[in-house]
Amino acid sequence: MSTSEMLVKVLGDLQKIGEIEASAIATRDGLLMSADMHAKGDPETFVAMSATMLGAAETATSELGKDVPNRVIVETDDGKLICMGAGPKALVVVMTAPGAGLGLVLVEMTKSAEKIAKLI
């Protein structure tokens, strides 16, 4: 199985928990590696802006002498956008449904991020 196919499988497993409307894996600089968007928009823009958001949070926390953030969460009335590092070279991003249970999503995203970090 190729790396690309394994990344698709990681996203497929993540989608199985339900409540995830879109998910993607990208490089730290925002280049798309894999996405499962269910026709919810442009995956390249989704990952590029998410990488920018995580990078900005990392810069802000380092300016204050703090560790890099584990994740960035943006909450709207329509759901939650969660961006999490997946090792030094990648990140994983999801958009949840409005009523999604944050705890389960974060646990499963962490597992996915660990798998991605080993693949890349």
3D architecture notes:
With about 120 residues, the chain is α+β, with helices and mostly antiparallel strands. It has a single domain, classed as Dynein light chain 2a, cytoplasmic (Beta-Lactamase). It has three helices and five strands; from the N terminus they run αββαβββα. A five-stranded antiparallel beta sheet has the order 2-1-5-4-3, sandwiched between helices. Strand 3 (about 70-75) and strand 4 form a beta hairpin. Helix 1 packs antiparallel against helix 3 (about 100-120). The two termini are about 15 Å apart. The model has no long low-confidence stretch (mean pLDDT about 95).
Q: Which helices and strands appear, and what pairs or packs with what?
A:
Layout: H1 3-15, E1 20-27, E2 32-36, H2 43-63, E3 71-76, E4 79-85, E5 90-96, H3 102-119
Antiparallel strand pairs: 1-2, 1-5, 3-4, 4-5
Helix pairs in contact: 1-3
